[in-house]
Amino acid sequence: KAGVTQTPRYLIKTRGQQVTLSCSPISGHRSVSWYQQTPGQGLQFLFEYFSETQRNKGNFPGRFSGRQFSNSRSEMNVSTLELGDSALYLCASSLLLAPKHYEQYFGPGTRLTVT
Amino acid sequence: QKEVEQNSGPLSVPEGAIASLNCTYSDRGSQSFFWYRQYSGKSPELIMSIYSNGDKEDGRFTAQLNKASQYVSLLIRDSQPSDSATYLCAPRDRDDKIIFGKGTRLHILP
Predict the structure, then answer these.
(1) Counting runs of H as helices and runs of E as strands, what totals does chain A give?
(2) How far apart are the CA of B61 and the nearest CA of chain A, in angstroms?
(3) Who has greater pLDDT, B109 or B1?
(4) Distance (Å, whole) CA A34 – CA A106
(5) Does residue B88 contact residue B99 with C-beta atoms inside 8 Å?
(6) Nearest Cα residue to A75 out of A26, A8, A15
(7) pLDDT digits (tens, 9 = 90+) for A31-62
(8) What is the pLDDT of residue A9?
(9) Measured CA distances, B50 to A37, A64, B14 (Å)
(10) Pick from B31, B42, B98: which is nearest to A104 by CB?
(11) How is A71-111 classified by DSSP, letter by letter?
(12) Which end of chain B is flanked by fewer CB atoms within 10 Å, N or C?
């Protein structure tokens, strides 16, 4: 079974631009979560989508947004990029094992550099 | 602010010994707990999940959970150089969000 895939793997953008990252979950997984990982802050939760609906959101500004499509694929968008947005963006998909007891599997990530 | 605390390390353990990684969390409403391993430059890999108090064993790995003490640990028996990585503790909180600790760097000495 194929794992979580993310595209692109690497991206260089300029301050003020916007960027869209894509994630395809493991087949059969309907939940997709996004995380930002930086050396200083570690892994921080951005948002989670389930069946095309955002079911949870972290403490990030409105410049960070996402969506999920009917095939469970998800995109996240960052508008008006800032230097501090340089990070590894990770997508994780989940198969619900039991209420609140589902495991997440990460994709390889997208390394975003903002110059 | 919900917190997950881990010793950042590095924790150096001789090859063949037991590595013990510890984690405390602040949200008493957390019900599921995960351990991830992350090699440098790679994404996190799920190695253990635990939902009930007590021990859960999977191969060389044992996760231990004590909800009353808000403490979860990971033991790695017969440590191998390939176990050298950063280990992330990740409870799922009462709001159903997974909160990650900043990780413990483990170094297995050959």
Answers:
(1) 0, 11
(2) 17
(3) B109
(4) 9
(5) no
(6) A8
(7) 999 999 999 899 999 999 998 999 999 999 99
(8) 97
(9) 24, 31, 27
(10) B98
(11) TS-EEEEE-S--GGG-EEEEEEEEE-SSTT--EEEE---EE
(12) N
Chain A partners within 8 Å of B40 (Cβ): none
Among chain A residues, CA nearest to B98: A45
Phi, psi for residue B24 in degrees, rounded to 5: -120, 150
Size (chain A), residues:
115
Type of residue at A101:
H
Residue B105 per-residue DSSP state:
E
Pick the residue of B98, B100, B104, B105 with the most A CBs within 10 A to test the interface with A by mutation: B98
Place of tokens 């609140």: A100
* Residue A17 · residue A81 · CB < 8 Å: yes
Nearest to B88 among A33, A43, A109 (CB): A43
Identify whether the C-beta of residue A104 lies closer than 8 Å to the C-beta of residue A92. Answer: yes
With an 8 Å Cβ cutoff, are A48 and B43 in contact?
no
CB A52 within 8 Å of CB A73: no
**Cα nearest neighbour of A38 on chain B:** B102
Query: Are B79 and B109 spatial neighbours (Cβ–Cβ below 8 Å)?
Result: no
Using left for φ > 0, alpha for ψ between -120 and 50, and beta otherwise, residue B97 falls in: beta
Rg over alpha carbons for chain A, rounded to the nearest Å, is 14
